Amino acid sequence: MAGSPQQNACSHGFIKATCSDCNLKTLCLPIALDIRDIDKLDKIIQRSRPIQSGEHLYRSGEPFKSLYAVRSGSIKTYLVDEDGVEQVTGFYLPGEVLGFDGIGSSEHGCNVVALETSSVCEMPFDRLEELTLSIPTLQHHFFQLMGKQIESDHQMMLTLSKKNAEGRIATLLLSLSRRNSRRNLSPNAMRLPMSRMDIGNFLGLTIETVSRTFSRLNKEGIISVEGREIVINEHDRLNELCHQLS
């Protein structure tokens, strides 16, 4: 479902990717899925042009039609309250699936925007439902993905309610580190796709507090910071900060 280096050009001039060739398929597909079943899934997936930075994939209130797997780039989800104030609710990286917010009410509950030039694999939900009837492991896998998202939301609520600024930043960095590892990337060196302002909004901190916290962690040698480039030098120390309460 997610990105592929395969270069079978389609009629529109875009690179044609397939699930079978995708180097991220172990993240968004069941590991034990048979190659014939992967081909069935591949036939329903839609891959369109790249989404540009600042462009929306969908908005709150729009009809729910599909789930999406991030193929490249990064995605931000956010809500807007009655006063027009934005609240960032999550960040999605390659191999991760989003769109579950629309299943219950048949319309999306949040806004989804690209943080940088990104691409997604669109899975029409009605066709996906039909396919899961004949592939039980696929249905179970998507239930697991939904469960993990709920668990992640609960962990973030705990982070925001009990941890100080350093603990919140440490929690985010370790989350990004683990997600990098799942993509066979370095768990230590990473480029943050989101701005300091988005980080502060997501973690319930001011942008000044975010900047000061990064500077303090950098000064202590726990991380090295250069703009959006981050190197984690001491994972154990970050873990300790995650367990400190405010």
Number of helices: 8
Distance between the termini: 41 Å
> What is the CATH homology-level superfamily of the largest domain?
Jelly Rolls
Taken together, the total number of domains comes to 2
Encode the helix/strand succession as letters: EEHHEEEEEEEEHHHEHHEEH
* Average pLDDT reading: 87
CATH class category of the largest domain: Mainly Beta
Instruction: Summarize the biggest pleated sheet.
Output: 4 strands, antiparallel
Estimate the helix proportion, in percent: 25-40%
CA-based gyration radius: 19 Å
**Per DSSP, what share of the residues sits in E-state strands of 2 or more residues?**
15-25%
Shape: globular
Write the layout of secondary structure elements.
Elements: E1 8-9, E2 15-16, H1 25-28, H2 35-44, E3 46-47, E4 56-58, E5 66-72, E6 75-80, E7 86-92, E8 97-98, E9 111-114, E10 119-124, H3 125-134, H4 136-162, H5 165-182, E11 189-191, H6 196-203, H7 207-219, E12 223-226, E13 229-232, H8 235-242
Antiparallel strand pairs: 1-2, 3-10, 4-9, 5-8, 5-10, 6-7, 6-9, 11-13, 12-13
Overview of the molecule:
With 246 residues, the chain is α+β, with helices and mostly antiparallel strands. It has two domains: 142 residues, Jelly Rolls (Sandwich); 80 residues, Winged helix-like DNA-binding domain superfamily/Winged helix DNA-binding domain (Arc Repressor Mutant, subunit A, Orthogonal Bundle). It has eight helices and 13 strands. The strands form four sheets. A four-stranded antiparallel beta sheet has the order 3-10-5-8. The protein has a four-stranded antiparallel beta sheet with strand order 4-9-6-7. Strands 11-13-12 form a three-stranded antiparallel beta sheet. Strand 12 and strand 13 form a beta hairpin. The longest helix is centred in the middle third of the chain and has 27 residues. The N and C termini lie far apart (41 Å).
